[in-house]
Design goal:
The protein is an alpha+beta fold. Helix content is 36%, strand content 26%. Strands 6-7-8-9-10-5-11 form a 7-stranded mixed β-sheet, with helices on both faces. The two termini are 32 Å apart.
Length: 218
């Protein structure tokens, strides 16, 4: 399949089914709120290295967590019971995203550039991106951020400052989303960590059906 080049002056994407086997669909365009919303509501997301052109992805096999299926191990239940934890929503979106960036830069490299931080802060101010933070004994332990549209949450990144910080954040997010009847957490790509927390693959057909259900709820 060819990789489509986007027109910066036109907010549109090719049919997601045209994505390559590795998930790459298109190149170029911009990170405007309008384009990001159109992307996420069709299973497309940006992911590229700083300094590169914007790359847009739509993997055919989707790795998701259904909120009701979040896995909490016995050791995690014990940890959460024995520690003073506080969950905050949108404490400081920009700071949480920057924590995700700096942690990844130090450990493994990151796709979160200045351009991405600015774009997702705009999305947050428009009401479509949220952060969740975990405090242990009033100190920041971890957090995550992602895009929330209708009844779907699209996870972007998370970080830990203390042991289990990101795990507690993901569990808290899943519980919150379950209480509000969310359909899924889109993890985008598989990791062993996310699989251990309840993540699993679903087909593109199942994912697309859930996305269409979500579009009707917006």
């Amino acid at each position: 399949m060819p990789v489509f080049r986007l027109d910066e002056n036109k907010i549109s994407f090719p049919d997601p089914t045209y994505a390559r086997l590795d998930g790459l669909l298109a190149i170029g365009g911009d990170l405007s709120v309008e384009r990001l919303l159109l992307a996420y509501t069709h299973g497309i997301f940006p992911w590229y290295n700083p300094g590169e052109e914007i790359l847009w992805w739509c993997p055919k096999k989707r790795f998701v967590i259904f909120p009701k299926e979040i896995h909490i191990s016995r050791s995690m239940r014990k940890y959460m019971k024995n520690h003073k934890l506080e969950i905050k929503l949108n404490r400081d979106f920009a700071d949480t995203m920057h924590h995700c960036r700096t942690k990844r830069e130090f450990e493994e490299g990151t796709w979160i550039s200045d351009e991405m931080e600015e774009a997702y802060l705009r999305l947050h101010k428009a009401g479509y991106a949220i952060s969740l933070e975990v405090y242990e004994n009033e100190e920041l332990a971890g957090g995550l951020y992602g895009v929330s549209i209708g009844k779907c949450f699209f996870g972007e990144s998370m970080f830990s400052e203390k042991e289990n910080g990101s795990k507690v954040a993901l569990i808290a997010l899943a519980r919150l989303l379950d209480q509000n009847d969310f359909l899924f957490i889109d993890c985008q790509f598989h990791t062993e960590h996310l699989e251990s927390m309840g993540g699993r693959y679903i087909s593109w057909e199942e994912y697309e059906a859930l996305e269409n259900q979500n579009l009707h709820s917006i």
